[in-house]
Design goal:
It contains one helix and 26 strands. It starts with a helix and ends with a strand. The protein folds into two domains: 126 residues, no CATH class; 171 residues, Jelly Rolls (Sandwich), CATH 2.60.120.260. Helices cover 6% and strands 46% of the residues. It has 304 residues and is mainly beta.
């Protein structure tokens, strides 16, 4: 009986040691973590709206539509190259389309612009020029809301040569129509609680220079329309959280975290918002250490 008691006690001690070092959990960061971010940043709230948070504020994010499951958002730095991220008539150019300002407060922040066809499929609202580099892949995001047109399309056009790539079709089922300026492929599509949508694409231009992103109803019926809310273009293949810009490109700084006051060899366990787990075995942990993540929404980080 004495031997059994000692064995159970030893097992309990080992279990406590294994579970004691929680760096980040559902309730937030523990005492052994440092965190910083040198800029404002956005998150998706529990009600499915985009919210702006101040520097050095850890972002609890409820996923692309606000429906969860929630996690702590960690992202590398990203620069939105589109000079005016929120659509307004004043910051867009009209190409065979009629543009009208709206007051939607879509997803909590976008007023919106109604883009109505003037009778041409290629009618659209164009962004200000965006500088791109040949061979570099960009993640392009468009926030929009369906209106009277059952279709929409995005046109990416070179300012000098006129070469363009076009991506569009029925809402929710876009395909590449032309890849003359470089290939476009859809990488994501989500619908927010208020009916607004975000489509994510990757685009790799075959020329260096200034381009414009255009969004339109893809309709030859005059008056058929779609609503443009906002645009974003960042370097890389992974879509970023929304980075607000006004008149010029803007950068969201990286989320930076690290261990403090702990040293030794540990197994590092990362649990993600989708329930998956990464385990880094036998890691030498010391001040400043932080694991690499395979996803950007984190539920917990613990040492064993």
């Amino acid at each position: 009986m004495i031997g059994i008691g000692i064995g159970v006690c030893a097992t309990a001690i080992r279990q406590r040691r294994r579970d004691a070092l929680v760096l980040l959990g559902p309730a937030g960061p523990g005492a052994n973590i440092t965190y910083s971010r040198a800029s404002v940043a956005t998150r998706i709230s529990a009600s499915g709206t985009i919210e702006l948070l101040g520097p050095d504020t850890l972002r609890r994010d409820w996923g692309p539509t606000g429906t969860g499951p929630d996690g702590w958002l960690f992202e590398p730095a990203a620069t939105n190259l589109v000079p005016d991220s929120a659509a307004t008539v004043a910051t867009l150019g009209a190409n065979f389309a009629t543009l009208t300002n709206l007051s939607l407060a879509a997803i909590g922040i976008f007023p919106g612009v109604l883009v109505a066809s003037n009778g041409f499929e290629y009618g659209r609202a164009n962004s200000s020029p965006v500088a791109v580099t040949s061979g570099t892949t960009y993640s392009v995001s468009v926030w929009y809301r369906p209106d009277s047109s059952p279709k929409a399309r995005i046109t990416i056009r070179d300012d000098v040569s006129g070469s363009q790539s076009v991506f569009g079709g029925p809402l929710g089922s876009f395909t590449q129509i032309s890849g003359a300026l470089g290939p476009i492929a859809q990488s994501g599509l989500v619908t927010f609680p208020d009916g607004s949508r975000r489509i994510d694409m990757t685009f790799t231009p075959n020329a260096t220079g200034n381009i414009r992103f255009g969004w339109g109803p893809y309709s030859s019926v005059a008056g058929e329309a779609t609503v443009l809310l906002g645009m974003q273009a960042t370097v890389g293949t992974t879509a970023s959280s929304y980075v607000e810009t006004t008149s010029t490109a803007a950068t969201r700084a990286a989320d930076v975290a690290g261990v403090k006051g702990i040293s030794g060899v540990h197994d590092v366990v990362v649990t993600y918002a989708d329930g998956s787990i990464d385990t880094h075995v036998g890691v030498a942990v010391s001040d400043g250490y932080w694991p690499a993540f395979s996803q950007n929404r984190i539920v917990s980080v613990s040492l064993r």
